Amino acid sequence: MEKITKLEVQKRNKERVNVFLDYEYAFSISTELIYKEGIKVKDEVNSEKLKDLAKKDGIIKCREAAIRTIERSLKTEKQVRDKLNLKGYEEEAINKSIDFLKKYNFLDDKDYVKKFIKDKLKSQGSNKIKYSLMQKGIAKELIEEELNSIDKENEKEIAHSLAYKKLNNLKKTENDKYKLSNKLYRFLLSKGYNYEIIKEIVKEIIEFEFVD
């Protein structure tokens, strides 16, 4: 058994407390943990108690790292997990941190998908959006559910606007009808629009521009 002889709040980080055992610095733990565990000077601790404190402190540090991650920008569950894994946190600590974020609505993949789609639809088609979300670890079923509810006519109108702007740029160096068609097709394909939308839009624009 060892005795806690001093508890000292760190000068540079008030959220951490230095713990001294038998008058020598031993380790630092979260201020939160000090209060939760009722740790006081003169308390005696054994190796099991120290291991338990280290484990709980690791969970708190992991949770704080998770919060910092989502404070910078909206994240998916997979993105948060990957960040915490890279930092070397234990699986149990990561799971508890994820549960904490979900409990207080800091982490919600469904909400993330809604906001992501709304933003990206301004310049991308469904296929590209779907691929991007899958890369972020979102379930395919959730992505398709949200994409199926978007206004297809609005998506087509945006694609038409993007294609027309692209055509105006292409016409500065190209005037061949078929080459322009192919370039527009590839452009819209790269933006993630499906074949039916691309075919319809390219046909409309080219026929309008090259009226016989």
Automatic annotation (TrEMBL):
* Cytoplasm is among the record's keywords: yes
- Ranges of residues in domain RecX third three-helical: 156-201
Any one Gene Ontology BP term: regulation of DNA repair
* Function according to Swiss-Prot or TrEMBL: Modulates RecA activity.
RecX first three-helical domain ranges (all copies): 62-101
Q: Show the taxonomic lineage.
A: Bacteria, Bacillati, Bacillota, Clostridia, Eubacteriales
The RecX second three-helical domain covers which part of the protein? 108-145
Domain of life, per UniProt, equals Bacteria
Q: Which UniProt keywords apply?
A: Cytoplasm
Task: Provide the protein name.
Answer: Regulatory protein RecX
Q: Where in the cell is it found?
A: Cytoplasm
Keyword Cytoplasm in record: yes
List, alphabetically, the PANTHER family matched: REGULATORY PROTEIN RECX FAMILY PROTEIN
Give the similarity note: Belongs to the RecX family.
Q: Name one Pfam family in it.
A: RecX_HTH3
Q: Could you tell me which NCBIfam families the record lists for this protein? A: PRK00117.4-1
- Tell me which GO cellular component terms the UniProt record holds: cytoplasm
